[in-house]
Give the backbone structure.
Amino acid sequence: MDIAPGALSPLARQQYLWRIRLGLIRRNSAEFLRELRKHPVALLSGVVIVVYILAAIFAEQITVHDPGRGNLRLRLDPPAWQAEGNWEYPLGTDAQGRDLLTRIIFGARVSLAVGLISVGISVVVGLVLGALAGYFRGRLDSLVSRFADLLLAFPFLIFAIGVMAFLGPGFTNLILALTFKGWVEFYRLVRGEMLSEKTQEYVEAARVTGQSHLAIIAQEILPNIINSVFVLATLRIGYMIIMEASLSFLGLGIPPRIPAWGSMVSAGRDYMLVAWWVSTFPGLAIVILVLAINLFGEGLRDILDPRLKIDG
Amino acid sequence: MNNPALLELKNLSTVFPTRRGQVWAVDSVNLSLREGEILGIVGESGCGKSTVLLSILRLIRPPGKISAGEILFRGQNLLKLPPRQMRSVRGKEVAMIFQDPLSTLNPAFTVGEQIREALRLHHIVGSARLPWPFDYALRKLEKQRVLDVMQEVGIPSPMDRFAAYPHQFSGGMQQRALIAIALVCGPSLLLADEPTTALDVTIQAQILDLMRRINREHGTAIILVTHDLGMAAEFCSRIAVMYAGRIVEQGEVDQVVGKPQHPYTQGLLNCRPRISERAMRVQPIPGNVPDLAELPPGCAFAPRCEHFQPVCEAGAIPLIDCANGHLSRCLIHTNFQRQPHWQWGDRVGAG
Amino acid sequence: MRAVKILERILATIPIVFGVAIVVFFFIRLTPGDPVDIMMGQGGAISEGEMDRLRQEFHLDEPLHVQLWLFLKDAVRGDLGYSYVLKRPVTLLIAERLPATIELALGGLILSLVVAMPIGIFSAVRQNSSLDRLSMAGAFLGISMPAFWLGIILILLFSVRLKLLPVQGRLSFDANLQEITGFFVLDSLLTGNRVALLSSLKHLVLPSITLGAPVAAVIARVLRSSMLETLRSDYVTLARSKGAPEWSVVLKHALRNALIPTVTVVGLQVGILLGGNMIVETVFSWPGLGSMVVSAIFDRDFPLIQGSVMIYAFTFVMANLIVDVLYTYLNPKISL
């Protein structure tokens, strides 16, 4: 910094700092895109994810069939390339004669929304609690950490199934069940990083210049650990999507009238012997999306946070 | 040199492919060692001195490989041995001790077990007729031998230490344990790669004493690799100085330390603080160790040399015999005359 | 010394087990609505007087901390309540279903270890070979695939199309197996029933693959990366310099140390095995704990759900305890 920030008024100082930060973000994103080009798999995965997101947003515009109402005369119509197939229903129809492709495209909405929202809330809760607990330690830390340990004693899916069993199916309940345990991962990451970053010299230096604790946490330490949080968040989105699909498969996630991939696979199970496509394609949609997210997250880790890398 | 050579390196070269091209970590090294002799290889870190030792045992990690030369051990070329026979040389005939004892000892096995393993691998005490755990009788005999060796290298109360894990040992004890592993099969050649670098000064002296005693009592030849010219001068009978993968000076201790010929050796000697002088003056060699991937065609030391002449960078310079086998790789001995046909592995007379 | 440490570790899990029980207790108590009404399936199926009687029987008229105390006291005695749907004690129901679940979990775990260990080791030894790349791609697929879908695909392929393996259940009807332990593979060995042995093994194959695939994927990845690290270590060079043959260098010196981080990760995978258990048992109609819980959810059989979730969490805690103990044996440096 070329001017002593202490000489500025608080507002001017904030403006000054933000100008620097925005510049950094702009430069970093350019650099990030350049780096991404060196990871073709991650780049391709990114494209796949964007396609899914666009499909989910513009589901009404890009489909011609009604996802909820089928043509009962065309029940269990096979995919187009099979002998009895029909290009009007490229991936075939389900037991109610509804177009599978349409329902898969609408199903992306549920999966992406659940993945993004549950991870988003988990990140916020975990970040705030982890930062406070790791920085201040004390009673808050021991209380929250105990609770986190307790939640860790439950396998995730079991916990979610248990909660959903009592709350009943529904979008809000689903988010609640997933975030109730989902924040722990982020809490542990942020708290651990906080503990180690706290002893670094730059934190000491910031304290000597008289910055408040909250300012040190938000402005000095968080920028250093946000990359790890970002990488973990990406990988967790894939996990949450599988969670949602598993709960919906058991009939505990999204109510059946809303198209969700998990319940679509489940519905196809009854017709496994005569119509393989009904279960196969919605599941394939999950695999491709989650695979893309995981590969993208892995590439992100290589670029943003080489420390976390597990493969040599 | 009337005794037959125990070990002879002929034009040994070891290369590592890197993103920026081939790196010659060892380039045309010629060395010979008699039975029971102690040779020192001196140089800065990254000059290839440790790679020479690993090359002798053929333990260069791929993609690195020995690209040329011969390694004659008792007249037999180790580079031509099939893997199985090479393994029976390792540890039994030629043993090695390493720089960092803590990371070199396997953390998951007891020290006694790690020493015993060498015995078992080379059937020193005998061959097991029954598989583990029915080889009890043989193990008992082996354990006795291990305890003797632990005693010999100065590990106190070996009975208790046999079942201890490496992290329960102090640094000096760890190095003694490593020496015990090297010694237990009675090798005729010991390769010591900076064995004292990781240790305290007092422990260093003890370890050197131990190695000297091993040399005296068992007649084990030793190659000591070190960056400390002073230590090499005290410990060895002959010294080879390496720079950027090549030997730049070689001879008896009195020759190399008493009348250093190569500017690099002279520089190394000037670097050493001497208490005897009234004002302790240390003269560092100017410049940095060269990048092995981008060596000049001629002398690698030329950019840092005070005697630099343009001809130094023209091409290969051989080792030049200055007096009675005192070799130096510097054109200063030929009045900066260079023959175009000279190769790095050549050896020519002065003048 | 080590025994003391292990004992300490065991004692340390006791508060966690109690914490788990308390969380499970609050599961039902914090659900909006009247617990008795919820338990009885909501909708006034029984009279008000009957509900009051039930409230008394469940001690729901007592203050919350007394209820908790009674719940914990019963749980310690092994009494997890009574299922009003199945009309039997929860503990008994769980005990009946447990062997099937354990058999499947062991099948999945063993299968994943048998597949993942050689792949992890070989991929590290031959880093960047085509087999390495192929297995790591497979591992990525393994962690990205939902278990229920994999199970269905396997059924479509091996049962429906190729007709090689059974679609569901633990045993075919023609195998008259006398049950002794409830572990069908063991029972058929004990009674020398070859038909039942073959049948029970055949029934195990697809569910075990489905359950084990994500676990195998994680183990292979972690083992590979830790092997890559240990294969580069100084002690591996020492082992080679001693004259150790290559198999001993890899399988003894490098693997022994690579197992230390791997074991920790395997411990974490137990959660996936348990969670996956519910899914896999549902897909393959496997008569175990998981499929029982899923039907209990639809029957709104809360005492049974509560008891089963507690058993799952308890198993998870115990599995982690075992992993910790194993860890101390593998890593002499660690003192719990």
User: Anything to note?
Assistant: Residues 26 and 68 of chain C are 9 Å apart (CA to CA).
